[in-house]
Amino acid sequence: MNRNFITNPFLTSGYISEKYFCNRQTETERLMTNILNGQSTSLISARRMGKTGLIKHVLNKLSDSITGIYLDILATENRAEMLNQLATAVVMAVQGKKGPAKKVLTFIKSLRPVFTYDPLSGMPQVSFHMHQDEINLQIESLFLFLGEQQQSFLIAIDEFQQILFYPEKNTDAWLRSIIQSLPNICFIFSGSRQHLMTDLFSNPSRPFFRSADFMSLGRISSADYIPFIGSHFSNARKEISDQTIREVLEWSDHHTYYVQLLCNRLFAKQIDNITMESWKQTAHELLMEQELLFIKYRELLTRQQWELMKAVAREGKVFEPTSKGFIARYGLGSPSTVFRSLQALQQKEMIYDEYDNTGNQYWSVYDVLFRRWMGLSRIK
Ligand SMILES: Nc1ncnc2c1ncn2[C@@H]1O[C@H](COP(=O)(O)OP(=O)(O)O)[C@@H](O)[C@H]1O
Ligand SMILES: [Mg+2]
What we know:
Helices cover 49% and strands 13% of the residues. The protein is an alpha/beta fold. It has two domains: 24-216, Rossmann fold; 301-380, Arc Repressor Mutant, subunit A (Orthogonal Bundle), CATH 1.10.10.10. The strands form four sheets. A five-stranded parallel β-sheet has the order 2-5-6-1-7, sandwiched between helices. It has a two-stranded antiparallel ribbon with strand order 3-4. Strands 8-9 form a two-stranded parallel sheet. A hairpin with a 5-residue loop joins strand 10 and strand 11. The two termini are 38 Å apart.
């Protein structure tokens, strides 16, 4: 995508600049304060709420005295792949810089990696082909090398809970023991699997216990989102009332990605005045585009899981999924079946649980579009 020429101000992937980023002021300030004080942060929220965007926003604001390094380890399956991601991220961060940064690059080269270029993005990729024992040593030496520099680093590891799936046991203990002795390096550990992340950072028997400021990222409030959306439309001489924006936010459940997606589509339409009819029409088109995918879900799930998924989608929020009332309303069988299906759906990241303002736990379907699709009054 040519990022120099933006025609649609509502991004549905990545980060460009402050202009296209709504609010998150308090969160940005808290992260910046933590970084300046050498305090690491764990950043947790449901998928697509805006963690990665927030990290990129903070990296964008860092002064030159701190080198920001960003890596996403979602796709990694072991420590060797983590090393590749880490080295690639370090190379990207110091590329084209002078002074101490150059030393880092020389150091990485001394580890004899293979440099390739991603054919799509043109970005450099660093990979190592070495024996398992050496992998641990290389990761350690890379961290220690950064730790020896007369310079501060911020390392943001996105989808950090992935380390729990590595075949190498106790990766968290191993990693913690390396990084705790590096005073010039501060971390952001971000993740979407809330239970795993909470366990990693708030369970006293875990090595990362209390090692980071625990921050959960909530929804952007209407008070912040309405002027953001309104001004981007009006800058393009498109009319939209606050009431219409409210409806859009409501339909998207204030879930950042879905808000952005619907606004992006609305903006792309050649309409000067966005009315209730036009947003509803656009939302409907979005659902129709997804229909095949939703029907695929049915094939991927067991019958009980599918029935439960539909029931939760129809309810919106379910506070007592194993209660008699809920089970009877949707003919879901026994509480133990529901319990098992619920666990499976959570593992597949199709359903998540959260706590409301009064501290009550509830379950919801992740995909807002699926929820809305189920809400269409048709029999499935
Ligand atoms: N504050 C924001 N303002 C506008 N768009 C945002 C904001 N935060 C995130 N986004 C957009 O929302 C989508 C999901 O955000 P992302 O950061 O990828 O979520 P997460 O990392 O939590 O899964 C992306 O398209 C991103 O561009
Ligand atoms: Mg992310």
